[in-house]
Amino acid sequence: MRLTKTVGEYLLGFGALQQVDRLLPKSTRQSGERVYLIDHFFYDGSLLPRLPLLKKDRVLYIDTTDEPTTEQVDAITAQLRSDAPPQAILGIGGGSTMDIAKAVSNLLSNGGSAADYQGWDLVKVPGVFKVGVPTISGTGAEASRTCVMMNHAENLKLGMNSDHTLFDRVILDPELTATVPRNQYFFTGMDTYIHCIESLAGRYRHALADAFSHQALAVCREIFLSGNMQSDEYREKLMIASFLGGSAIGNSLVGLIHPFSAGLSMVLHTHHCVGNCIVLNAMDEFYPREVEEFRRMQESQRVALPRGLCQGLADSQYRALYEATIIHEKPLANALGDDFRSILTFDKVAEIFRRM
Amino acid sequence: MRLTKTVGEYLLGFGALQQVDRLLPKSTRQSGERVYLIDHFFYDGSLLPRLPLLKKDRVLYIDTTDEPTTEQVDAITAQLRSDAPPQAILGIGGGSTMDIAKAVSNLLSNGGSAADYQGWDLVKVPGVFKVGVPTISGTGAEASRTCVMMNHAENLKLGMNSDHTLFDRVILDPELTATVPRNQYFFTGMDTYIHCIESLAGRYRHALADAFSHQALAVCREIFLSGNMQSDEYREKLMIASFLGGSAIGNSLVGLIHPFSAGLSMVLHTHHCVGNCIVLNAMDEFYPREVEEFRRMQESQRVALPRGLCQGLADSQYRALYEATIIHEKPLANALGDDFRSILTFDKVAEIFRRM
Questions:
Q1: Does A156 lie at the interface with B, CB-CB under 8 angstroms?
Q2: Which residue in A7, A11, A240 is closest to B1 by CB distance?
Q3: Phi and psi of B95, rounded to 5°?
Q4: In this structure, are B172 and B218 located in the same domain?
Q5: Residues B58, B188 within the same domain
Q6: Which of B124, B147, B177 is the last residue of a domain?
Q7: Cβ contact A208–B6 (<8 Å)
Q8: Which terminus of chain A is more exposed, N or C, with fewer CB under 10 A?
Q9: In this structure, are residues B20 and A18 in contact, taking their beta carbons and an 8 Å threshold?
Q10: B 65-94 near A (Cβ less than 8 A)
Q11: How far apart are CA A268 and CA B324, in angstroms?
């Protein structure tokens, strides 16, 4: 039985970002410096008119070309450590930017390097006050208690799982997702769908997580099996579904898809969300109904999946994919039981990857 | 656009109450006094073995024969004020007990009388640390930002609507609902159903509240249209639905049923939850599909509704019922528009009450 902590304060609605000042503690409005970490997608400055920037505030654009790394988090933290510590950190972007904001907040208060805290409940004290602002819906990073980073030295992809990783506040502003490219909108939205089907198919059960997952799935079905997934109404609904999916996953576990997708990220640098979709599409034997539904959604939205990703790789690459997948024991055991290695042999795992 | 605050920390599961110490701030475990306000249903002491009572702790049983009143809250607060202020207040019971715990917590910090804070956002500073523990599911009091009290001097039934009214922590322990009498289980569970149908039928929309309401309704349908509504599984699910319904209503508004039910409480001392059911059953013209579904649930669970409640009343009583109903402008306007008085004339309101 786990004491569950969720983000307890949020502002929701079209244009909510412009009211960010209402979410910040009063102290930061007067004297303190606020740091805005913004996805480089907005490097053209198009977000700045929406932000109530004060003289002392700093804006850093985050390069999210690749998945976040521990080195990247350490570098940003070092840059911020050279000055007086900021009063608040705002992460404005997708899962990568929000995860980096969460990690930097924790590091500024706890010291050390990002890799020191990869694992479960290793963060000792609360981070700097942090606000999450998704500009694309699906990852649930705005609501989850983790921030996932690649650690190339250790050859792993793992998060700082901790109650301290949760954002203090969240802004859900559907205006911000109006400019998301079509394919990316679909792949990232599917992250919520995949979280929830994995969670509901697992052995580990949590009644509130189940309720959140069921509702998030209902919304995903409405959005992605219909006409225009990017309408104002559906963009707002997908933002809610993402928040619910993130809340669910904080009390449950993913299944087979996320470990395989983490393997793709580690070895082939595939981005998380499109990687999830590629993996799901090769999982007929484990999630037959969901794969079928996913393909109908894809058809309905006319989004094509990259093909042939893992064909013709060297044996050493299949070995690396296997290693980077099988290391995720908790979700694999959630899906298949403690004996998951007897099902996911090297040959089986390689066969699944070859289908992608 | 409202900054939403919800209960951010909760412990969920069979037997969770026995772990209440994990939810209390450390300071209260060492020196402070904790006050347990417990519904008089447990006056036989049957809950005490589940509580980690310390020497200084106090247990007060709350008489919930009638709906909570401002006088009752003032009396309990005065009793607690005579000693050093408690470090934490735990409200263990149904909506009445939890609402009293919330009100007492606010009063101990803010001074004055309960009636001073009936209304919207009148509570100035955070109350004493408070934990909600429902022992019956449905009211959503464990998650809502209000605590409703009858104020007989002012002839109104109104809550302290405030972010400070929210519990700091909640314990959801389905073991506690095992002893609820069958009819009361049904009527109280229906409070969630009614919250959600009212919220979804209103003009005021909030995307997250809608998501919570849809899921809570799906769970209510599963539980009450099926066989044994009081099975372990369904008791756990109803506890979740109640929490979701309470979270929804914090971001939305009720409709016609709650104002009429408040009228019944004020004039005829009808309890909130059975009152809601009686009102819903007379609302065919406003909620036709829901009334039909409600009757199927009643049939499925073989629960009879009190009849003839408002037949043969004096004219002055119909007038009092009308006044106590029509005063609830916000929910009535949410349901019918600002012009609600042209629909809900005295004759119309009296006609609806006569059907009950």
A1: no
A2: A11
A3: -55, -40
A4: no
A5: no
A6: B177
A7: no
A8: N
A9: no
A10: none
A11: 68
Same domain, B305 and B335: yes
Rounded to a whole number of angstroms, the distance from the CA of B165 to the nearest CA of chain A is 14
CA gap B250, B196 in Å, rounded = 11
* Chain A residues closer than 8 Å to B17 by CB: none
Residue B105: exposure state from Cβ atoms within 10 A (0-12, 13-18, ≥19): buried
Q: Which residues of B292-303 are buried (b: 16+ CB within 10 A; e: fewer)?
A: ebbeebbeebeb
Task: Give the CATH number, domain containing residue B69.
Answer: 3.40.50.1970
Q: In a 3-state reduction of DSSP, which class is residue A26?
A: helix
Domain end point (choices A151, A177, A203):
A177
Residue A228 lies in a domain: yes
Contacts of A10 in chain B (CB under 8 A): 3-4, 208
User: How far B252 CA sits from the closest chain A CA (Å)?
Assistant: 13
The answer as to whether B234 is a domain residue is yes
pTM value is 0.93
What range defines the domain where residue A117 resides? 9-177
Total number of domains constituting chain A: 2
In tens, the pLDDT along B64-107 reads: 999 899 999 999 999 998 878 899 999 999 999 999 999 999 99
Q: Tell me the pLDDT tens digit for each residue of A108-167.
A: 999 999 999 999 999 999 999 999 999 999 999 999 999 999 998 988 888 999 999 999
Inter-chain residue contact B240 with A206, CB threshold 8 Å: no
A329 & A214 share domain: yes
Residue B129 pairs in a beta bridge with: B88
Which is nearest to B196 in space by CA: B276, B136, B268?
B276
Query: Residue B191 maps to which CATH number?
Result: 1.20.1090.10
A1 within domain boundaries? no
**Count of A–B CB contacts within 8 Å?**
90
Task: Indicate if A186 and A162 belong to the same structural domain.
Answer: no
B234 touches chain A (CB under 8 A): no
